[in-house]
């Protein structure tokens, strides 16, 4: 990657190097090539510049801090690339994949930035006191605009027109005429922005279709959200809440469009709403609201179709007798019988239990209230509009609610007859019993972990570690969104009683275990070079195998899997603020561990704000992560450099920037090379076995594991 340097004290006749920088950004852009960087030294850039500054495709302009580097000025915008002549004077024009970082831009006669093609990246800049707009995106541009400040711009902070899309995330808009304007057919994602003290915070017009989530549009001088023409902004649905805050002196929302505007999960004052607005109730229960279970005193429901007979092998040796005629031989018989002995569950008048019938929220409340009567109340009672005092489960619902097991919905309803999901039942018991949160890497045992809602990740992890979860026929299939059955609920409540210490433990092959993969792996013989390193990590629940019983030691480890491993092994403290990666949504199974690994300085993302969670981790990346995250130091780096590198026949493949880290890792015994001790192969994907050995040795250095001798460990004599 070529870097061209610019400084206010440089000369355009010089070479553009760090020692002899150019004077103007204009000259540097003439020299820059795709993939290159124009590095600006602190100072003001105005005199001698030819505006607009056109940043070619793939070129990055980077300052040091946004306050230290200031570009002031503007020039005629080319109307051929400026749809509808939104601005006639601009400071910077960004090409496809061009980037602008850590710069302040001011245009006293026009707009700051114009993005009219491709995917431009605008991050950590300040658009200050531009006469027209801070940034304009038009045509089919799809920019990523994040963590910028738009302050005091005359027209708007940011305007998107034509068919522009992209993402507007975590920006600040203050004291502008209009904070964000979205018109024509533009359809960006606008998320987690702060808009304060603007005349109009967000304006949508024409046929715009933006999606607005988690924005704070407050202290608006007139209107927080103004919808005009045929625009249809998405500000939330019952299953996908908007979570925006709209606050305007005149109107929180003004809908001048003909179609009604639907709103769900937003903070606003209905008194300050003008036009047709439809208020939709959330269909997402509170985090502790969960499915229901069974109790004997319920009206019978039709029997479901019989399920196929389970494989007899997992049930061999288990006592499957039951007092219920349809539960003899059923996998759940031991759990149901244990609860029946305590009079916590009953069957139906025909002698059946109906294990595969779904349960309701009221039934779940009844079972929880009966099973955990001594749990103290932690919240005041709520009177639900749809639970009459004469309702059979009203006392149980009240008890379970004040104990923290269950909750109602934002509309004041409880929906006692609604079926619930497995994940809701799990979260309810974890919260009600105050089991805390678990390590998200525990969820690696579940093949369908991607289906776990983000709010439930830590509770499900805690339930897994405490062995609350029972999944038939496969303990590694959580099926979190499936309705919970009477049998599954009985098993779950039984395991919760075990965790509470009030019921003896039962043996069952269907209890999910965080370290269930710690059994003998089919492809990991006793003579495997890394087995002694792998086994302790598996037994701790930091590593797991695969559903087929294998460990696949030679398979590559992904970056997300590595993040889960180091977070579990080291439980690191944060040393830097969080960052949003474009390719790691909140619903991704490893989102939490990736964020923790980043904040602890073990891992970082890439310049385009991606993390590549499913990309194989290289051996060099693993070593760099351990040295950086654990803040490891070499005793005598200068003397050790040549001596350490001499042991590797492929030392020429080590990048210059990584030499010191490799030297440190070598000195501390973190490097394992198999099968050839002298070959580091730094750029090759690291195998699961190699990573296990390196992480284990790092735990040895931290006095968390005993040392293990290995012929594959590089040790300096």
UniProtKB/TrEMBL annotation:
It comes from Phormidesmis priestleyi Ana. This is SLH domain-containing protein. Residues 319-382, 384-443, 444-507, 517-580, 581-640, 645-709 form the SLH domain. Pfam families: DUF1565, SLH. Signal peptide: none annotated. The lineage of its organism: Bacteria, Bacillati, Cyanobacteriota, Cyanophyceae, Leptolyngbyales. InterPro entries: Cell_Envelope_Struct_Comp, DUF1565, Pectin_lyas_fold, Pectin_lyase_fold/virulence, SLH_dom. PROSITE patterns: SLH (PS51272).
